[in-house]
Design brief:
heterotrimer, A alpha+beta, B alpha+beta, C alpha/beta, A: alpha+beta, Beta-Lactamase, 4 domains, five-stranded antiparallel beta sheet, 20% strand, C: alpha/beta, Rossmann fold, 5 strands, disordered N terminus, FIST domain-containing protein (chain B), FIST_C (chain B), FIST_domain_N (chain B)
Chain lengths: 421, 392, 136
Amino acid sequence: MERSEISQKREKELQEMDRVAKMLIRRDFVLNETREKREKELEVLQKRTKELEELREALTNMLEDVEEARRKIAAEENKTRAVFISLTDGLIVFDEDKKVTLVNPRAEEILGLKERQLQGRKIKENPQFPVLSKFSQLIDRPAKWTGQKYDLNLKEPTGQFFEVTVTSVIQGKEIIGLMAILHDVSREKQIARTKTEFISIAAHQLRTPLSATKWILKMLLDGDFGPLTSKQSEFATKGYEINERMIDLVNDLLDVARIEEGKFGIEFTQQNFNEFLRETVDSFQQQADMKKIELKCNIPDVPLIAQFDSLKLQMAIANLIKNAIDYTPVRGRVRITSSIEGNAVKVAIKDTGVGIPQQQQKRIFSKFFRGDNAIRMQTEGTGLGLYLARNIVESHGGKIWFESKEGEGTAFYFTIPIKKL
Amino acid sequence: MIKATTGKSNNLDGTKAGAEACRQALAQLDHKADLIIVFSTVGYNQQEMLAGVRSISKEIPLVGCSDSGEITGEGPVSKHVAVMALSSDTIDFTIGLGTGADKDSHKAGVMAAKEIEKKAERETALFMAITEGLAENGAAIPRGIQEVFGKNFPIMGGAAGDDFLFKKTYQYYNDRVLTGAVIGLGLSGKFSFGVGVRHGWEPVGLPMKVTKAEGAKLIEINNRPALSIYEDYFGKKVEELIKKPIARMAYTYPLGMSVEGSSELLIRDVVIADEKGVITCAAEIPEGSEIRLMLGDPDKAIQAAKEAAENALSQLKGIKPKVVFVFNCMARSKLLGARKEEEIAVIQEVLGKEVPLIGFYTYGELAPMAGILGPECFSVWHNETMALMVLG
Amino acid sequence: MEKKNKIFSGGGTSVLIVEDDEFLRKVISHKLASEGFKVFEAIDAQIALQLIKKERPHLILLDLILPGIDGFGFLEMIKKDPNLGDIPVIVLSNLGQKEDQDRAMAAGAVDYLIKANFTPAEIVQKVRDAVRKNYL
C-alpha cells in the first residue's frame, strides 16, 4: 500500500516536473528565438558597420584626393595671385555688370583706393578721388566697352599718363567679365614731349641764322645796299639759293617730325579744288619760264567743291611740280591735268624729263631718297618732298603713284576723294 | 608525410570563387596534391563553382558537397567555397561513388563501399563518407558500408547541407555535381588517426516511448500522434509546425534515444512533419525505443567539442596531428550563434592552431559511437554532434 | 585823308619791332626805314611796353622768344589793356609749331610770319597790308 502511494506520489511529482520541463522548454524556445533574432540583427549591424568603415575609408581617400587637388589649385591660385600682385601694370577686373571684382596692388596705387573699397561697386565719379573720377569718365563711354585703348591723362593730380586697354574676360565661350589694364606711358609721353620740344627748339635755333642770311642776301640782291656788279649778283644769288635750300630742309624736317609724332593733321575745309590747283600751277609759271619749259594746264573751268587741306595739299602739289620742272631739261614740257574718277578727283603731272631709273623706282617715296640721275643734275632737293607728298595725299584718303621711263619722262598721279559735308 | 593546405573565397562569381579557393590552397602546397576536398554554399551555381575549382585542380581526385556553412583553420564562415588540398606519400586516397541515397540509402552506401574496396591497392583502414543530406534513411548508409567493410569498421563523415533550406543538397565527385549520392573516400596505408564524437545536448522532461514507427518516420509516440510532442512542448499549432519546416524550429530541440555503449543519448533531428502528425527524422528511431526531448546549451556544446578533440588527440597516442576534419552539425551553429567561433577555437586549442583544418556544417554526421575505436567500434548516424577526425 | 596819304607813303606810319637778336632787328629796321616807315626798336617786353605807351606805334612786329616775359605773355598783356589792345600785332618768329601759331592767333595777333620763310620785302608788304586793313 505504501509503495503504490509512494509511486503515485512519485508519479505526480514526475508529472509536475514534466509540466515544468515543458514550460521551461517553451521559455527556452522563446529565448532562443529572441537570441537568434538578436544575433541576426547583430550580424546586420556588423555588416553595416563594415560597410560604413569601408565607406569612411573611401571617403577619407577621396578627401585626401580632394585635399591634394585643393592644394594644387591653391598653389596655382597662389601663383596666379602672385602674378596678379606683381604685375607692374594696374589690373582691374569687372563682372558682367561692370562691378569691380579684383583690383591689383598697382591699380590700387594708381587710383588711390584699396581693392576692398571698390569691390562689388561700379566705378563712379567721386570728388574725393580725382584719379578715380578721371578713370570713370574714361570708361563711362557708350561705345563698345572692350578692345579699346584709351588715354588716361593724369597730368593734373599726379603728372602721370596711362594707356588703358579694356578687354573681355572669356571662360570657354562665355564672356564672364571685363578687365582694364592701366599701362604707364608717362615716360613715353615724356620722351615724346621732349622730342617735340627738342624739334621745336632745334628748328628755331636753325632758322634764326638761316633767316638772317636770307634777309641780308635778299636785301643785298634787291639793291638795298647799293647796286651790285653782275658777278657780285651772281654769287649772292647762289648764296641765297643755297640758304633757301637749307630753310626748305628745316621746314621739311619739321614736317616729317610732326608726321612721326602723329601731329601732322589734315584740316579739311571746303574749297574749289580746280581753282586751287590752277593757282598752285600758276605760281610756278615764272620758274618754268626761266628754263623755257612749257607749263600747260588742263584743268576744267568748272568749279569742283571738295574738302581738303589747301595748305598741305599745296605743299604736296608744289613738290610734284617743282620736281617736274627741276628734272626736265630746258625746253621740255610739263603738263598738269585734273579729271573726275568715280568719287575722287585725279590729278596728273606729266613731264618730259630725265625719268626715274628702273632699279630706284621702289625707293622713290622713302625719306631722303634722291635718284642718282637727279643728283647728277645738280638740282637741289631735300629728298623729303615725295615722302611728305605721299603722306599728305594718303592722309586725305587718296592715292599717289607714278609712271616713269628713264630718258623719256615721268608722270605722277594722285587722287583726292571728294568729301562732301 | 602528410601535407594539407586550405583556401577559401566568397567572390560573387561562383566560377571565380571556386577557382580562387582552389588556387589559394594549391599555392601553399609545395607538393603535388593527391586529393581535393570542396565544401560550398548552395548560394553558388554548383556546376559553375565546381568547374571553377577543376579549372585549377584539373585531374586531381576531388570529393565534396554543399553545406550550411564552411569551416577552415581560420574559423567558421558562411556563403563561401572552402577547399583543402592534401598530399601524402604514406596514405593512399581511393574514392568511390554510390547513388540513389534518396530512395535506398543502404544500397547507396554499399555501392560506394564496393567501389572503394575494388579500387584500393592497399587495405583500407578508414572510411570517410560524404552523403546526401536529405536521404531516405541516413542511418542505413553506414550499415551499407559496414556490409562491405565489416561491422566494426571506422566510418567518419558528414551529410551535405543546403544553407538551412532543407530543399536539395549536392555532392561532388571529381567534376560531377550529384544529388542523392554517397561519396566514399578510403584511406589506406601507414598513418595514425583519432576521432572525437560528442554533442553536449541534455535530455529534458519525461521519457517517452515510440509506439509506432517506420524507418525514419515516427508515427506515434506514447500512442499519440508524434507531432503532438512538439505541440505540447512549443505550444504551437500543427499547421505552423508543418508549414515552417519543423526542422527549423526543432533543430535545437531534437529527440534523443538511449543506445547501448554510449553515455550520451543518440540524437535524431526532426526534419519534416505532415498533416497526419507524422514526423520524419534524419534517421530511424526503431519502434519501442525510449526517447526524450533534448535541450542544447551553448556552454555544454563547446565543452563537448573540447572533449571530442581531446578524445581524438588521445587516440593518436602522442603522434602530432597533421590534418583535422570537422563534421559539425548545423544545429550547433544555430545553438551557438555568435559563439560558434569559440567551438572551433577550442578544438584548435587542443589539437594545435597551426594544424590544417577543413570541415562543414552538416545535416547529419557519421561517426563511431561515443568516439570509440578498435574492436568495439560501431559507426552510426548522428545529429547535433561534433564529429571530428584527426590524421597524423 | 592826310593821314591816309601819310600811311600809304609810309611817312607817317610807325612800327615797333620787338626782337632780341641784334642782327635781325637791325636788318628789319633798315628795311622798314628804307621803305619810309618810322621804326622803334625794343629788345625785350619791358622796353617795348614803355615805347608803346610813349610813342603809340601803328603796328607791332613781335618775336616770341624774348628775355624775360616772352612774346606770348607780352601779347596777352597788351591785348588786355583797353588802351593798347587795338594796335595790330604781327608775330614774327622762327617758332613754327602749329600750336604756337594757334596760340598767337588766339591771343589776338593779326598774322604769324616765320622769319625764315619770308624775305624782308615780303615782310614789309605784310606790314602794309595789316596797317591798311586795320586803319582804313
